[in-house]
Design goal:
alpha+beta, elongated, single chain, four-stranded mixed sheet
C-alpha cells in the first residue's frame, strides 16, 4: 500500500454518508464520482496481482454455430453496450472475467441443455496490479488501516456486493469503476483492472468466487486467449454435470479459432450422445441445437 497523505476521519465519514444518500436516491454516476474523488483523496489503496496469471470468460453460443475468432469472445464494442452494468455505463465497454472456471459458470447461470464457451486468457505481465473492490478478506489490508480507511473499505464493500433489481442502482459502482479503472492513481501499471467478489456466488453457495473488470486498452496490451471449450450443463439422475463438448486445438496469429470438431461434426456427436472425451450420456441428446 502507498500512503498518500493523512486523512481526517470525520471528513471521510461525512462524505461517505453523503455517498450513501446519493446511492439510495439513484443519482447519476457523475455526482458520485466527484464526491468519491474527494472522499478517497489521501486514502491508501490496496493493489494485488492475480494468481497463476490466468483468467476465464464465458459466452453463450449462438444457435447454429461456433465462435470463429477471439474477438467474439472478448469485450463488446461500445456501441453494443445498451445497458448499465455493475461497473460499466451505457456505451462503455469493459471486459468482465472470473478468477476460475467455477466463477465464470456461476456468473453465466447456465440453463440445462444450452451450449456456452469458456475461454482461458493468459496475462503476459505478472506485475499488473488489480484494485480489490469490496474484498474484505484478511491480508488485503494491513494492521495499520486507519479508521477513515475502514469507512471507505466498508462503504465500497456494501456497494459492490449489493443485489440490484434496477440498473440505476449500479450508478454508485459505475462511479467507483471510473475512479479505479480510468483514473491513474499510483502509476501506469496499476490502472485499468479491478478485482471484486461475485454477487452471484453468494446467492447460491457459501464459497465466494472473484471477478475481474478490465478496460479494453489494458486487455489488448496484456492479455492473450490461449484456449476455449464448449460446455453444456446436463441433468443426470442424481446431480447436474458440466460436460465439455468441443475444444479449440489452435488459435492462429489473427485470432481465428480452430476447433477439434466442426459445428456439423459436433451436432452429430450431440445427437449420438457423445461428449468431448467420447463418453456417452443419453442426456446430451437433449442439448438445444439448430
Amino acid at each position: 500500500m502507498h500512503l498518500l497523505q493523512k486523512v481526517n476521519y470525520w471528513d471521510v465519514k461525512r462524505k461517505v454518508e453523503m455517498l450513501k444518500k446519493l446511492s439510495s436516491s439513484k443519482e447519476q454516476p457523475d455526482k458520485h464520482f466527484h464526491l468519491i474523488k474527494s472522499a478517497f483523496t489521501g486514502v491508501r489503496s490496496a493493489a494485488i496481482t492475480i494468481e497463476n496469471d490466468v483468467i476465464y470468460r464465458s459466452r453463450w453460443n449462438k444457435q447454429g454455430g461456433l465462435f470463429s475468432n477471439t474477438s467474439e469472445l472478448g469485450y463488446p464494442n461500445n456501441s453494443d453496450v445498451k445497458q448499465k452494468g455493475r461497473l460499466n455505463n451505457k456505451g462503455e465497454s469493459i471486459l468482465y472475467a472470473a478468477a476460475c472456471e467455477l466463477g465464470t459458470i456461476i456468473e453465466s447461470r447456465p440453463d440445462i441443455g444450452k451450449l456456452f464457451t469458456i475461454s482461458t486468457i493468459k496475462l503476459s505481465n505478472s506485475n499488473l496490479l488489480f484494485f480489490p473492490l469490496g474484498i474484505t478478506d484478511k491480508g488485503y489490508y494491513g494492521k495499520k488501516t486507519s479508521s477513515a480507511e475502514k469507512l471507505i473499505i466498508e462503504y465500497v464493500n456494501s456497494e459492490i456486493i449489493k443485489v440490484v433489481d434496477d440498473p440505476e442502482d449500479y450508478n454508485s459502482t459505475i462511479a467507483l469503476s471510473k475512479f479505479y479503472l480510468r483514473t491513474n492513481i499510483i502509476g501506469s501499471n496499476s490502472s485499468g483492472c479491478i478485482a471484486y467478489p461475485s454477487v452471484e456466488s453468494s446467492k447460491i453457495s457459501n464459497k465466494t468466487t472473484y471477478n475481474f473488470a478490465i478496460i479494453p486498452k489494458v486487455f489488448d496490451k496484456y492479455f492473450t486467449f490461449t484456449d476455449a471449450k464448449v460446455y453444456c450443463l446436463i441433468h443426470l439422475k442424481e446431480h447436474y454435470q458440466l460436460t465439455a463438448m468441443n475444444q479449440v486445438t489452435e488459435i492462429n496469429n489473427t485470432g481465428n479459432l480452430i476447433w477439434k470438431y466442426s459445428y456439423t461434426e459436433m451436432t452429430k456427436r450431440i445427437k449420438d450422445g457423445l461428449s468431448l472425451d467420447g463418453r456417452y450420456y443419453k442426456e446430451i441428446k437433449c442439448i438445444q441445437i439448430k
